[in-house]
Amino acid sequence: MSTPTYSAHPLTVLARTSDPRTMLRRFLALDAVVTAGNGLAYAAAPGPLGRFLGVDSGLLLGLGVFLVLYGAGVGYLASRKSPPALAVRGVIEANAVWAVLSVVALVAWLSPSTAGVVWIPLQAVTVGGFAAVQYAALRALRDQGPARG
Predict the structure, then answer these.
(1) Which of 5, 35, 57, 129 is most buried, by CB atoms within 10 Å?
(2) Is residue 75 part of a domain?
(3) pLDDT tens track for 84-97
(4) Within 13 Å of residue 1, how many CA atoms lie on the same side as its CB?
(5) Contact 133, 27 (CB under 8 A)
(6) CA within 13 Å, CB half, 138
(7) Distance CA 57, CA 43 (A)
(8) How far is CA 58 from CA 6, 14, 79, in A?
(9) Does residue 58 sit within a domain?
(10) What are the UniProt keywords, alphabetically (predicted)?
């Protein structure tokens, strides 16, 4: 009787797999869906969302278009059998920068409504969370060594 091999990595349960490559691709895919969805909302309804969040509608429109394109790029990486580590690191770094700049913008630049004061840190934590799980999955993949087969 053989013993199944399971990763001791804490992300195994969250990703529902013990394979680091699959884990990474799933976290990238989730990031792509959430990011593109957020971007579509910003781009489709910048006026109403801008009023609700207390953020300039022109800014939301620009961010929306950017997020749709960025989400598509992340989705492309997620669709690759073996996403290139350098590109994944770029996504991780971009997500980390986005999270930090969101908080900086909230404190130093924006004057959002109460909804915006809640939304901006919430999305920053979400994007920062994507960066963290993607980094951990990339590290687990690296620790696994070259693909066997």
Answers:
(1) 35
(2) yes
(3) 999 999 999 999 99
(4) 1
(5) yes
(6) 20
(7) 9
(8) 49, 37, 32
(9) yes
(10) Membrane, Transmembrane, Transmembrane helix
Range of the domain at 27: 14-140
Region of 80 please: left (phi>0), alpha (psi -120 to 50) or beta. beta
**What is the end-to-end Cα distance of the chain in Å, rounded?**
22
Q: How many CA atoms lie within 13 A of 112 on its CB side?
A: 24
- With respect to residue 41, please indicate whether it lies within any of the assigned structural domains: yes
Interval 75-84: pLDDT, tens: 999 999 999 9
147 belongs to a structural domain = no
Spatial contact of 117 and 92, defined as CB atoms under 8 Å apart: no
Query: Do residues 39 and 142 touch, judged by C-beta distance below 8 A?
Result: no
111: left (phi over 0), alpha (psi -120 to 50) or beta: beta
d(CA 60, CA 68) in angstroms, rounded, equals 12
pTM beyond cutoff 0.90: no
Using alpha carbons, select from 36, 127, 32, 40 the residue that is nearest to residue 80: 32
What is the total count of domains within the chain?
A: 1
